[in-house]
Structures are given as structure tokens and as C-alpha cells.
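User: Can you recover a sequence for this backbone? Please restate the input before giving your answer.

Assistant: Of course. Working from this structure:
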């Protein structure tokens, strides 16, 4: 699993690694890239932008951001982390998939 810093291709933020799991989306704009087949493996060849479209309840107290890839249109889910933009999380939480 690769936990690495990256430059957000949507908003330009220099996103720092989490230090405990693979960071997979920008905490400012919530966008991601379609780079993983399995979380943190960085083996996906699509490389399209993952656009946040909704939020869903996950186990315990966790939530997942639901994405649709702009390139291949696949749906992906990434777990929300503590420093994510809560204004955007709240806005997405009213969307239904």
C-alpha cells in the first residue's frame, strides 16, 4: 500500500500523506484519481478523475465518499478522513446514488 503525497489535479492543493493508510483523495475539494484497483496499489491504468457524487454510511461511525470516474464512468468509494472539507461532505450527503 502506497501512502504518498500528491498534487491534486482538480484544485492544485499539495496533499500530504496520512501516515497510517493510503491517502486517496484531496481533503479540500474531495476529488480523487482512478489510480487503484485495490486500495493503495496504484495499479489502475484508467487514471481518470474521480468526481465526488455522494456520501454513504459505512461500518461503525465511518462514511465513504462515492465517486464516478469521468473517463470510464465506473463507481468507486473511498473512506472519508478527519481533515476532509466538511462543507462539501454535508453538501454531498444530500445526494442519493
Amino acid at each position: 500500500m502506497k501512502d504518498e503525497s500528491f498534487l491534486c489535479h482538480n484544485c492544485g492543493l499539495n496533499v500530504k500523506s496520512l501516515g497510517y493508510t493510503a491517502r486517496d483523495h484531496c481533503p479540500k475539494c474531495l476529488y480523487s484519481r482512478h489510480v487503484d484497483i485495490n486500495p493503495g496499489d496504484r495499479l489502475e491504468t484508467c487514471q481518470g478523475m474521480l468526481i465526488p457524487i455522494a456520501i454513504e454510511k459505512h461500518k461503525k461511525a465511518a462514511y465513504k465518499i462515492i465517486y464516478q470516474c469521468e473517463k470510464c464512468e465506473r463507481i468507486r468509494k473511498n473512506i472519508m478522513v478527519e481533515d476532509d472539507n466538511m462543507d462539501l461532505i454535508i453538501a454531498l450527503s444530500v445526494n442519493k446514488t
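That completes the design. The chain has one helix and six strands.
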